[in-house]
Amino acid sequence: MALRPDRIHVDSQIDFFMNEEAERGGIVTVSTAGSGAAMDQAEQLCTYAANPSGVSTLGVLMCDMVDEDLTRQHENWYKEQVQKGGKVTIWNKGTVVTNMIYPGTTPTAGQRAYIAHSGYIANSAVVSDDSTADPVVGRFMSTKDEDGYCKVSVNLP
Known about the structure:
Elements: E1 3-17, E2 27-32, E3 45-47, E4 57-61, E5 64-66, E6 81-83, E7 87-98, E8 112-115, E9 121-122, E10 136-140, E11 150-155
């Protein structure tokens, strides 16, 4: 599990789908976008970006994306699981405690939080080859604990 229950919810969105398995707690980005309101368009996709350079960030993925045989069992809603290809909940404003911290990163409270590779969060720009790389997604509100979890305040439009 990549999120702990200590959370503060301010604003969220539910208008993106995700077509891959993923663990909650990382920063998702736009993969493809629909047109108009795009609430139920298949083109409205988000992903954990392999390269954070020049991406459009959405917020923190709040559910686990799983690929299960639904003819044998149903989704476990109590574990916040969504079948691959389903709609996801994304928090774009709020505070979460996550372990999706970029490897080797040692954040301190008050530092800016940047998007890194594969949805991870870093305390500095991981890719700096152009001016659109590694957008700021919020601030770190604590240091990492012994299990690698850290409190992050996310503030995206």
